[in-house]
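Consider the following assembly input.
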Amino acid sequence: MAPDKGALHLYNTLSRTKEPFVALNAPHVGMYVCGPTVYGPPHLGHARPYVTFDVLSRYLRHLGYQVRYVRNITDVGHLVDDADEGEDKIARRARLEKLEPMELVQRYTLAFHKAMDLLGNQPPSIEPRASGHIPEQIEMIEVLIRKGFAYESNGSVYFDLEAYRAKYPYGDLSGRVVDELVAGAGNERRALAGQSEKRKPEDFALWKNAEPQHIMRWNSPWGLGFPGWHIECSAMGVKYLDAPFDIHGGGMDLLFPHHESEMAQTTACHDCAPCRYWMHNNMVTINGQKMGKSLGNFINLDDLFEGTHPLLSQAYDPMSIRFFILQAQYRSTLDFSDGALAASAKGYKRWIQGLQELIAYKPAPSMAGQEPAVNSGSILSAPIFEAKAQAALNDDLNTPILIALGYELLNEFQSVKSGKITVTAANWTDLVGKIKVYMTDILGFNLSDSGKEASLSPALEGAMKLILDLRQQAKDSKNWAQSDLIRNALNEAGIKVMDDKEGSRWSLG
RNA sequence: GGUCGGGUGGCCGAGUGGCUAGGCAGAGCUCUGCAAAAGCUCCUACAGCGGUUCGAAUCCGCUCUCGACCUCCA
């Protein structure tokens, strides 16, 4: 039975509208997201889609669905453009670094996993590798040939778009019109490899004959070669999710030709569309510009987390990056700049620490004559908070609104602390539970992990207590030079000391 | 040239017909040995020009402008 907890609406690229989400085989939901090509270190461009679809899978699970989230690892390499025409990306890097291609793939796969983990992304249910599914891809290509939608040419196999278009529409997803594609001006840029082998220039490769220098190669009915770019997603998506499955996600840059081709291949092979909903996250820019290696503004995630990049003034905590990403709706472009990141990191600190304090708070019993917030329409009322949080997510995953609700909670929380408004213990317990559900389970921010310092080590705790006691003695005797000396020295050692009414607090960093 | 998506206050970023989004920065204040942190208050925008409407950031048209993609780059 499909759980009914309000109506989730998702923007479907295919219809260009927000549609109510209806699972094809409730309570199961199949979701396929195009994964990374592991030919280099994980970068900013990887952060956004995987945070976005992580939140989607978490929310679907919260709604009661059993989600199978499949995200591939592309490790068979694809052609590079520019000067390296015709040479496999992975093979090229491997040669440069004098490694086996698979060694390189392994290194960057691990780096990718680590970055995803730091960003708070849960691993997908299945993470199939393209190189581990060569037989499935070959099999699919054979079906396409048999059905007359593909042809072999000089050891390569191409998708016959003309044959396909005679039976199915093509271009609906991306809004392309084939006849304009090839004819279009400004399109003479690339002399595509193997263009002469094709019957029509718009045909795309399913299997590519391997040149001698191409290291990554597999045996096939058409000779040594490697699969075309699009076929892996089609083959693996269908293998693990069946066609049609519910959701196919990825970056907007994949819309054409990648997803359009996937759609054609699967449709031609199985006579049904690969999926019901196509979702695309918008792109990331750096200081308003596309991120690109040639533009010199490429930011790897490690650089971000460690602050080692000329464009960055400081290191950014991975979870503050997650926060930054979720502060924008996934269909808007998101501009990374040092200023925006710094602002967001600061806001995140207040947000997370405030909420941590909130969920640890034990409200005093209601005072007579004061109306509890639960009756006043305040967001501190658990049902009201939940209704608003759910409405935000149901509207095509509007995470910025949900984050803003967190700030609203903190605002009202002040009034609770100062006794201006009262809450009932029962409602407070409910509210804390809901906050954990939405902010932790769904958005992925850990609220119970306050006092990172407290768990560091009892030895440090003890030492700090001693130091702060000594400092307090200095303060009591108005020996400001001494107390400031201690505070400054600790500061230089990376320990912040702050005084308030109750005494001194300290924290790392 | 084509297709698609944008242009919101100093910055980031929600919002699709009337009701203060939110954050950061800035200003003032509270607290305070100093500092920091925290809290309170203030800061009311919607690229331009027309149009529709009682009323538009929100709908329509035009202009300017930015971005993505345009077949083997994920």
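Chain A has three domains: 9-281, 308-442, 458-508. Ask yourself how this observation constrains the way the partners meet.
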